[in-house]
Amino acid sequence: MKPQLIAAAEIDRVETWSKYNRDMCTSCMSTCCTMPVEVRIVDLIRIGLVDEFERGEPPKNIAKRLQKDGMIERFNAKSGIFTLTRMSNNDCMYLDRKTRLCTIYEKRPDTCRNHPRVGPRPGYCAWRPKTQA
């Protein structure tokens, strides 16, 4: 059996997104987990990438360390937002490739907890069905 490619979210084409309903999550290939994940210091602490004692350090120093470790792609000093690194196929680094489930679900960032209430198109999702042709 030939493996299927997973469609990444079409971030730039939010008009293609579907109105969100709760049942979508059980029939999706975790499409939202292919979008950039923006996090703040509190999320990094919850995930375990930053120690509680580092909270008082300048965020740019934390960002420098996390970029060096390959954990974040970028840091916006003006907003204080870090963007987690994604895998080569655009999956979140915490998404299991086989099960398509989050490996840190209980500790997931606020961005993930609040999707799709917040994001590029609130109330809509870049949903892709599990059975793609």
UniProtKB/TrEMBL annotation:
InterPro entries (alphabetical): Puta_zinc/iron-chelating_dom
Pfam families (alphabetical): CxxCxxCC
Superkingdom to which the source organism belongs: Bacteria
PANTHER family found in the cross-reference section: PUTATIVE-RELATED, YKGJ FAMILY CYSTEINE CLUSTER PROTEIN
Protein name: YkgJ family cysteine cluster protein
